[in-house]
Amino acid sequence: TSKDSGKNKFSVFDQEMNRYQLRRMSLEKDLRKALARSEFMVVYQPKWDSLMNVTVGLEALLRWKHPDHGIISPAEFIPIAEETGLIVPITYWMLQDVCVQNMSWHKDQIANVPVSINMSARMFENGSLYDVVSEALASSGLEPHFLELEITESIAMNNMEETVAQLSKLRDIGVRVSLDDFGTGFSSLGNLDEIPVNTLKIDQVFIRKSKMHSKKAIISNIIAIASNLNMEVVAEGVETPEQIELLQSLGCRVMQGFYYGRPMPVNELGQWFIENTA
Ligand code: C2E
Ligand code: MG
Ligand code: MG
Ligand code: MG
């Protein structure tokens, strides 16, 4: 009867919720031990100058190698890390790891490009970002302009005064800043010129194959805004030659996406740079 099926649906939903909550709770518990157990790994995705055909930067992306569940996507564990505050020590570890890694690519003359790290809102809450970044640069010996922080519009707009103050101090010593997922954050454009930003990263939703032609006007205007504000532009999520052609025709030359390179572990990047450096 309809009454029974209604009841069944409810209990299936209940079970789903329960399973979701159980996984969430168990991941949270494991996440608290993951740093100490060295379960995090950094992978690097190239940013590619499509006219010069060279790698012009890398984005560092976090991977969690869970002992039972295998590799867990950042889409699943970053929100947990943010809610619990664990993202702060994790990002401190990552800053250190990435600076040391990039410095060793320089020393070994393997690569000379900036590496970016994604920032959560939490990183701007306790006022210590400047000190932590300076320490990672000093102890690794990496020059500040080889480090880039990726922030989102919502981070920038939330508590704008404080965020801008901290970013400005970092920019003053040469650290680069990019605005990630640009165009999806409903930011007020009126403030964009007040945030110290080197680069706008056009979000993948505009670049997606099925959407791209209908989003041409938006993409073109993001490129114009960047150019008028003296910012560079990077297109995210580039997967096909058609996307590259259209982006180039709109004046965008730097791209990041599976077409050029997937995020790679350190041991694959040596070979990558041999094959993809001018
Ligand atoms: P994001 O910063 O916008 O990073 C780009 C994401 O798009 C990465 O996913 C990357 O693998 C993926 N991607 C790159 N090219 C393509 C493409 O051509 N097609 C498609 N479909 N996807 C592409 P990933 O590594 O799974 O990271 C997802 C998000 O998780 C990141 O988005 C970022 O917001 C967050 N995240 C990753 N690592 C960190 C981290 O260390 N700290 C913080 N706070 N967030 C992180
Ligand atoms: Mg990013
Ligand atoms: Mg992005
Ligand atoms: Mg994103």
UniProtKB/TrEMBL annotation:
<feature type="domain" description="EAL">
    <location>
        <begin position="24"/>
        <end position="277"/>
    </location>
</feature>
<protein>
    <submittedName>
        <fullName>Diguanylate cyclase (GGDEF) domain-containing protein</fullName>
    </submittedName>
</protein>
